[in-house]
Specification:
Elements lengths: L1 H26 L3 H15 L8 E3 L6 E3 L22 H4 L2 E2 L9 H5 L2 H4 L24 H14 L8 E5 L1 H13 L8 E5 L7 H6 L6 E6 L9 E6 L18 E6 L18 E5 H4 L8 E5 L2 H15 L4 H19 L9 H21 L4 E2 L6 E2 L6 E2 L5 E6 L6 H7 L2 E2 L1 E2 L9 E5 L4 H10 L6
Parallel strand pairs: 3-15, 5-6, 5-7, 7-8, 8-9
Antiparallel strand pairs: 1-2, 4-10, 9-10, 11-14, 12-13, 14-17, 16-17
Helix pairs in contact: 6-11, 7-10, 12-14
Length: 454
């Protein structure tokens, strides 16, 4: 019996060793083979998977389309190894669909000492931050940091405003819709925005099917004698232009999305002074993953309803994220205050120079070909920096010229993923391209665009 047990143990050990070797052999696949398999799989899936949230169930005649902020679950990274051949850059897929602000990483790596937050485990246990405030889960430190930064930059009025913090400006947008829509109306409130509008507005407006509001399309075409909510995004996503409201009715409520009203993207002309203003750290500082946004609201009752929406939706907003955001905003304000005492670039200096350089490079790339064009922006003097410049949008609103009718599809054939104009209520000859990617991705873009011939 002992001999049998001994033999059985030996068999198990040998079997285990053979299996481990097999697993190791399968797992050790060179990078080129993985890339080839990945590319082949993607080619097979293109008829099933649309890169902008279009869902196919396998039947070409039955397409269910949903446009989302993050358009695919699978991110295709434009990354090559240092040992890759020059031809490898021609075959890698560049994903510039999302507005993921990874270009800011290098700056913040240099500021780790000033912006690192250490949180003891017993901090932030309570739901409550300031029960005297309408927005009772807003951390006082974040409110102070926001107030100070707006004062330093001069891009928004904060006096006599109520502050509401949200999980990014997307949650605040939905909270604002909830707050301004009549709850006793006979039908849903119309929601409009001038095309090209932010591609997620239609989806977010109708997603909950609450009955309080409904997406009613392009504000330029809205002529109903009914109450409406107009969304004014300035600078606009996707085309970068400064916007004002366009509907000339007397039954409208305005919500101003000012995510890009910062001096790296646009000249700051005057402090914004509107009833409801939405901001986010995603585009102001680049910290999209922290999921922090804030609203400046004139009417206390609207601020209360927005707070109620967030309370029901998520029972407040992460204090850890708020404290981190406050630390980062304070660091930016500190650097601006001390700008004359040091030779180091402030955050906005660094960001402006990087955006200006990227726009110069993409314009040079586009000018080398007759296939594409970009909008032009008149220069204006920024009250914050004193610089005279035109818009430097976070997205390039690229147009395919000539006989190309579907610019998104055309660029996809050349392994550049973008978001097509139809998602923004515009012509399919346009695409939105993120200008906020990592440097190597942007470099690949500017190399590839002028090389495209058909």
């Amino acid at each position: 019996m002992a001999d049998f047990v001994f033999v059985l143990k030996n068999v198990l050990v040998v079997s285990l060793a053979m299996n481990m070797c097999l697993i190791w052999k399968i797992s050790v696949v060179d990078v080129e083979t993985l890339a080839f398999r990945w590319s082949s799989w993607m080619n097979m899936q293109q008829k099933k998977l649309h890169f902008h949230g279009v869902c196919f169930n396998g039947d070409k005649d039955d397409i269910r389309e949903k446009d989302a902020h993050v358009s695919t679950r699978t991110q295709i990274l434009a990354t090559t190894s240092s040992g890759a051949s020059p031809d490898g850059a021609k075959t890698v897929v560049i994903n510039l669909d999302h507005g993921d602000p990874t270009m800011y990483e290098n700056f913040w790596k240099q500021k780790r000492a000033e912006t690192t937050v250490v949180t003891p485990s017993w901090y932030h246990i309570s739901y409550f931050s300031d029960i005297k405030n309408i927005c009772w889960f807003l951390e006082p430190g974040l409110m102070s940091a926001i107030t100070r930064l707006h004062k330093v930059v001069g891009n928004a009025v904060t006096e006599d405003r109520h502050f509401v913090v949200g999980t990014g400006s997307s949650q605040l947008y939905q909270a604002a819709l909830y707050a301004v829509s009549p709850h006793n109306a006979s039908g849903p409130m119309n929601v409009v925005s001038a095309a090209p509008f932010y591609s997620s507005y239609p989806l977010m407006t109708d997603y909950l099917k609450s009955g309080l509001h409904k997406w009613a399309g392009d504000a330029n075409e809205f002529n109903k004698q009914e109450p409406y909510i107009e969304l004014v995004t300035s600078p606009n996503n996707p085309d970068g232009f400064t916007r004002q409201n366009v509907v000339k009715g007397d039954k409208g409520i305005l919500i101003h999305d000012l995510a890009y009203y910062w001096p790296q993207y646009t000249p700051i002309l005057v402090p914004a002074d509107y009833d409801i203003m939405l901001f986010t750290v995603s585009k102001s500082t680049g910290h999209a993953g922290s999921r922090i946004g804030w609203a400046l609201v004139k009417d206390g009752e609207i601020a209360k309803k927005m707070t109620t929406f967030i309370e029901i939706n998520t029972i407040g907003v992460s204090k850890d994220s708020q404290i981190r955001a406050a630390k980062i905003l304070q660091a930016i304000s500190d650097s601006c205050d001390h700008a004359n005492q040091t030779n180091a670039d402030t955050f906005f200096d660094y960001s402006y120079k990087l955006m200006a350089q990227r726009w110069k490079q993409i314009r040079e790339a586009v000018n080398k070909t007759e296939l594409f064009s970009l909008p032009n922006f008149p220069p204006e003097t920024c009250s914050f920096s004193g610089r005279n410049f035109g818009q430097l949008p976070a997205f390039a609103w690229l147009k395919c010229e000539g006989e190309v009718d579907d610019c998104e599809k055309f660029l996809r054939r050349n392994k550049i993923l973008t978001r097509g104009g139809k998602h923004f209520g515009a012509s399919m000859k346009y695409v939105r391209i993120s200008m906020l990617s990592r440097e190597h991705e942007f470099k690949l873009l500017t190399q590839r665009l002028p090389a495209i011939t058909s």
